[in-house]
## 1
Amino acid sequence: MIGELTDREMEAVLRSEIVARLGCHAEGRTYVVPITYAFDGTSLIGHSRLGLKVDMMRQNPVVCVEVDQIEDPGHWRSVIARGRYDELEGEAAIDAMERLVARFESLDLSETSRPSHGMVEALQAGEGYPDAVVYRIHVEEMSGRYERR
């Protein structure tokens, strides 16, 4: 049975997962890439080194994010969230990075898999982090589907 997720169910998917697929589009090119994130109830928070993804989102801040929970081919939930990319600075960037780091603390990850790489400390010291950004994708609309046997 295929059905539509409620708002509450879509939020639950976004809160429970940590990997999404981000779609961005600029200069006639579409790019889809996995990201790690934390969901704060209205936005997805992430960080990234500078590169194609950030360049494209700076040119066109309208993005799409897809998050899945898949148990097997007959039992899954999927959410598509459309929104706007916004780079964070100062206290907003520090707060977002602390939230992102806290989201990953309870997971059994290698040190290089954890989202920080010294960013929190550099931001707190006022040094910035010149080759990376902290960002928010403010969710403007969502849709979700599920399949259950």
## 2
Amino acid sequence: MSNNAKLTPFSFVILALVGRNGAGPHDIVRMMRERALFWTTSESHYYAEPKRLAKLGYLVAEEQPGRTGKRTHYELTDRGRNALAAWLAQPAAMPRVQNEAAVKLLGADFSDDATVLSSLRGLRAQIDASYRDLEAMGRRASEFPHRIRYLRLLDDLHRRTLDTQRRWLDDVERELGEPTQQDHAGLTDP
């Protein structure tokens, strides 16, 4: 059995976040909240996966003093570092996308444009919040001098993604804000 047999793409997210400095579950959750642009899943996975990886020998868990009691701190083992290095050498897969807004447009013919548009406009506040998260991450980048270059490149990807989402939402608002033949179909006499 290869070292990577029990690893999933999400396993590598956790290994990369633990990185050289190690991380506790709360650190991992905080980083993922801020970096949700590149991977999303429920918070419970961010707590469960490091435990699983420790059982498989990719991470080692150590109890350390925390503010209110002991806290778990994970570090990569040699097996974890080797698995991460081997995975980094493999070709990157195309991004997996779970875009609820796109699905809402796919099913929009079951509603009216105003309703769908109202639903999609909620994205604007989330996009703005993501820009704020990027600013916060940028302020903390100096805590990881060994990753500065890579964090800068990730920041660029996130900003471009948010810029694209914002422009796309502008286009959708323009398009759905205009009355269509379908919108007037119910208003005419038979």
